[in-house]
């Protein structure tokens, strides 16, 4: 790991000592559902919806007892809810038929499920199974490109670049640190560069303040 990368990680650790997954879940299945729901939606909104949803339907078998229409009605506060409900119901059937109702603990297994791409798989692998992973969501993509940990307009390339740049044992924590920084400081519009703890090491900051 480059010295600059190590310093960036240490500064972000100091800034966000509580960095962790902000989706509420009790099991790998619940995290999988919550992560699918979280696409283009805030974790806060997802948690509001899943609080009652998981209380009433905590398991794969419980979900399989309800109709897609009922699920749509329960998650309709969330964007793209019809498509998400369709994918989740299909995913539940796939879990039952192909994995004995259990969420697989491999990238290949999770990405074979409806509605689950690499980002979703990495979130579940990291948080539910403790597998070192870097899920590249919109925040990780933006922040890592801005500060120079990655340089690509392709999400998968950014994931590979971060894996190469960061030690494997730091992947999961770095993912959370970059998300926290993206939500709280390095926002898409009007980033708070003046209070950023790593601005002196940031490629974006240097490019916007140079004369």
UniProtKB/TrEMBL annotation:
Broad enzyme group:
lyase
Keywords for the protein's UniProt record, in alphabetical order: 4Fe-4S, DNA damage, DNA repair, DNA-binding, Endonuclease, Glycosidase, Hydrolase, Iron, Iron-sulfur, Lyase, Metal-binding, Nuclease
What SUPFAM superfamilies does this protein's entry cite?
DNA-glycosylase
Annotated residues for binding of [4Fe-4S] cluster: 186, 193, 196, 202
Give any GO molecular function from the UniProt entry. Answer: class I DNA-(apurinic or apyrimidinic site) endonuclease activity
Cofactor(s) it depends on: [4Fe-4S] cluster
Which GO BP terms sit in this record? base-excision repair, AP site formation
Question: How is the cofactor bound here?
Answer: Binds 1 [4Fe-4S] cluster.
Tell me which EC number(s) this protein carries: 4.2.99.18
Q: Which PANTHER family match?
A: A/G-SPECIFIC ADENINE GLYCOSYLASE/ENDONUCLEASE III (PTHR10359), ENDONUCLEASE III (PTHR10359:SF18)
> Would you identify the family this protein belongs to, as annotated?
Belongs to the Nth/MutY family.
Tell me the HAMAP family matching this sequence: Nth
Q: What is this protein called?
A: Endonuclease III
Organism, by scientific name, is Clostridium folliculivorans
């Amino acid at each position: 790991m480059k010295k600059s990368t190590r310093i960036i990680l240490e500064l972000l650790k100091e800034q966000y000592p509580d960095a962790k997954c902000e989706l509420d879940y009790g099991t790998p299945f619940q995290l999988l559902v919550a992560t699918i729901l979280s696409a283009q939606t805030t974790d806060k909104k997802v948690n509001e919806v899943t609080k009652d949803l998981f209380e009433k339907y905590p398991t794969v078998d419980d979900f399989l007892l309800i109709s897609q229409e009922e699920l749509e009605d329960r998650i309709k506060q969330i964007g793209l809810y019809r498509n998400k409900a369709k994918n989740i119901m299909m995913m539940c059937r796939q879990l039952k038929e192909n994995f004995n109702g259990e969420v697989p603990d491999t990238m290949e297994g999770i990405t074979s499920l409806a509605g689950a791409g690499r980002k979703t798989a990495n979130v579940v692998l990291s948080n539910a199974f403790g597998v070192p992973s870097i899920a590249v969501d919109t925040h990780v993509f933006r922040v890592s490109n801005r500060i120079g940990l990655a340089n690509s307009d392709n999400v998968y390339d950014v994931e590979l670049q971060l894996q190469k740049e960061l030690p494997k044992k730091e992947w999961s924590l770095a993912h959370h640190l970059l998300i926290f920084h993206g939500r709280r400081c390095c926002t898409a519009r009007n980033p708070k560069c003046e209070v950023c703890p790593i601005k002196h090491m940031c490629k974006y900051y240097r490019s916007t303040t140079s004369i």
